[in-house]
UniProtKB/TrEMBL annotation:
Coiled coil: none
Name assigned to this protein: Molybdopterin-dependent oxidoreductase-like protein
Biased composition (Polar residues): 13-23
Ranges for domain Oxidoreductase molybdopterin-binding: 59-143
Compositional bias segments (type: Basic and acidic residues): 1-11
Record region (Disordered): 1-33
Highest taxon in the source lineage: Archaea
Length: 160
């Protein structure tokens, strides 16, 4: 699924080195689940700006564990097309795997640690603000048919 209203012209992802201190994440595929400790993951930085429905644009340098590194450790087969990102308050975003694989579960923004209540936060180039899920608990791989609407698999709170 495309996000025509998102800004991607400033997107990039570069390797960074940093001590890892990111919460465990549960990866789910069908009935299988696996808890992953990102302690050994390489960190990456995603630089992007996001467009909120209000028209406000905000951005920054987000650092954390690459979603691609986490999904390499996911259970299940390779049929998945989308990733459901479950966060605090049952905020759920559903993004294409292509979009998700460019992202990180960020624990730092710029020079600052994200507040514990907000981390880790899903951030990926080209993903709109409402889908930058805070306090990610669970990543769920799902397979959608070509005619299915990813938005039917979301529960986005606070979207104005
Ligand atoms: N877990 C969780 N993540 C969330 C939300 C939420 O309600 N719960 N709101 C989203 C929306 S709609 C926006 S615009 C941004 C707001 O991020 P900010 O508080 O850093 O401005 O977070 C997104 N991530
Ligand atoms: Mo929002």
């Amino acid at each position: 699924m495309d996000h025509p209203d998102s800004a991607d012209e400033s997107s990039r992802a570069v390797p960074t080195q940093s001590p890892s201190d990111s919460p465990h994440v549960t990866l789910v595929a069908g009935d299988d689940r696996r808890v992953v400790d990102p302690a050994d993951a390489p960190w990456r930085t995603v630089t992007d700006s996001f467009l909120c429905a209000s028209g406000e644009r905000w951005g920054g340098e987000w650092r954390g564990v690459p979603v691609a590194w986490l999904l390499e450790r996911a259970p299940g087969d390779d049929a998945a097309t989308h990733l459901r990102i479950h966060g605090a308050g049952d905020h759920v975003a559903c993004v294409s795997l292509a979009d998700a694989l460019g992202g990180v579960l960020a624990v730092e923004r710029g020079d600052d640690r994200l507040p514990p209540a907000d981390r880790p936060r899903f951030v990926a180039p080209g993903v709109v603000a409402a889908r930058t899920v805070k306090a990610v608990r669970r990543l769920e791989l799902i397979e959608l048919a070509p005619d299915e609407d990813a938005e039917a698999y979301e529960a986005l709170a606070n979207v104005d």
